[in-house]
Amino acid sequence: MHYTGINHLAMATADMDATIRFWRDLLGMRLVAGLGRPGYRHYFLEISETDMLAFFEWPQVSAIEAKDHGVPVSGPFAFDHVSIGVRERNDLWDIRDRLEAAGFWVSEIIDHGFIFSVYSFDPNNIAIEFSCPVPGVDIRSHPVMADRRPSVVTREGADPQPGKWPAPTPTPLADRRIYPGEGRELVLVEDE
Fold first, then answer.
1. What fold is seen in the domain 1-61?
2. pLDDT at position 183, please?
3. Does residue 134 come out as left (phi exceeding 0), alpha (psi in the -120 to 50 range) or beta?
4. pTM score
5. Which strands, in side-by-side order, build the sheet including 31-37?
6. How many CA atoms, within 13 angstroms, populate the side-chain half-sphere of residue 85?
7. Rounded to an integer, what distance in angstroms lies between the CA atom of residue 63 and that of residue 142?
8. Is the dihedral of CA 179, 185, 189, 192 positive or negative?
């Protein structure tokens, strides 16, 4: 397998206009695609050449309950926050200044040792972080486990461990079908 990044993270909003104003106009992400029909919208914003944010607009959805980044909760829960990478510290200062000028709560810039980060919330109360690498530190090239009590599985190391799952049976070429779905209208040109 050859992963290229996060194609898109899909989140929900009741107010697509406020969401676009925040992500496109305040933070500078291009609005690259939009699908829609009554009661439904699905829009995509470009983070980088390979990564996007997407939002479904569902009129009956409400903003999530405010929760600080990384603070444990109990009960059903699936998502804490999204961290969007930027190139350098000056980008963090730019984001911080923009958010502050627009009246959004924004943290100070935090040094985590391997990344510098700034934290905030979008108009939907989605917890967001913007991070850039600390110069000279690359935990991807040199994985580090600072947990003093790692699990048995964790102690197996950074690399995927073969043989831990059943071997897949490849789908025969004759059976490989791709079915139409939402979004084809973005690339299909109608005859005029």
1. 2,3-Dihydroxybiphenyl 1,2-Dioxygenase; domain 1 (3.10.180)
2. 87
3. beta
4. 0.87
5. 8-13, 52-57, 40-46, 31-37
6. 12
7. 39
8. positive
Cβ-Cβ contacts under 8 Å for 128 (sequence gap 6 or more): 81, 82, 83, 84, 119, 120, 121, 122
**Neighbour tally for 115: CB within 10 Å:** 18
Q: What is residue 79's predicted lDDT score, i.e. its pLDDT? A: 82
β-strand 52-57 against 8-13: which pairing, if any?
parallel
Q: Please answer whether residues 108 and 95 qualify as being in contact, where contact means their C-beta atoms are separated by less than 8 angstroms.
A: no
8 Å CB contact between 117 and 129: yes
pLDDT along the chain (192 residues), means of 10: 89 95 96 90 95 93 87 84 95 98 98 96 95 94 89 90 92 93 78 50
Predicted confidence at residue 122, as pLDDT, reads 96
Residue spans per domain, the chain = 1-61, 78-140
Pairwise CA distance, residues 178 & 98, whole Å: 43
**Given this model, what pLDDT does residue 2 score?**
82
